[in-house]
Amino acid sequence: MTLEQLNHWVGTRPTLADALGIELTALTEEYLEGRMPVDGRTHQPMGLLHGGASVALAETLGSVGAATKIDPTKQACVGLEINANHLKGVRDGHVIGRATPLHVGRSTQVWEIRITHEETGVLVCISRITMAVIDLK
């Protein structure tokens, strides 16, 4: 799938990614990248980026990235486990997530997602997601 097709798939229906303003920005053989605004949609009450929004970005990128490594007519990827360490607070701008596969196997995939502040490059969150690869019937 192309980046345009992936953005259409992720953002043309009412989804969490659409509600949070997540857009996919780069796709290579090595990674998938996306960005998310840090604003009222993604803030927690103290005006900082909500940790759950960071996890939603991470899961979106890891899940879409995993889908690029399978034949979607025969298989699907579903999340098994995700974790995140929130390292730095952000109040505004955008964050950039880069999802990189650590393991692409027949029945599982593991992806690392590094989220940085777009303007400063500071690491905001690091996450890892494990995906199950399931056969469609």
TrEMBL record:
| SUPFAM superfamilies, alphabetized | Thioesterase/thiol ester dehydrase-isomerase
Q: Where is the signal peptide?
A: none
Q: Work out whether the entry's keyword set contains Acetylation.
A: no
Q: Which family does it belong to?
A: Belongs to the thioesterase PaaI family.
A single GO cellular-component term from the record reads:
cytosol
Is Acetylation included in the keywords of this UniProt record?
no
User: CDD domains from the entry?
Assistant: PaaI_thioesterase
One Pfam family hit:
4HBT
Any one Gene Ontology molecular-function term assigned to this protein's record: 1,4-dihydroxy-2-naphthoyl-CoA thioesterase activity
Q: Which UniProt keywords apply?
A: Hydrolase
* InterPro entries the record matches: HotDog_dom_sf (IPR029069), PAAI_dom (IPR003736), Thioestr_dom (IPR006683)
Q: Which domain of life is it from?
A: Bacteria
| Protein's recorded name | Thioesterase domain-containing protein
Organism per entry: Hymenobacter swuensis DY53
Thioesterase domain: residues covered: 46-122
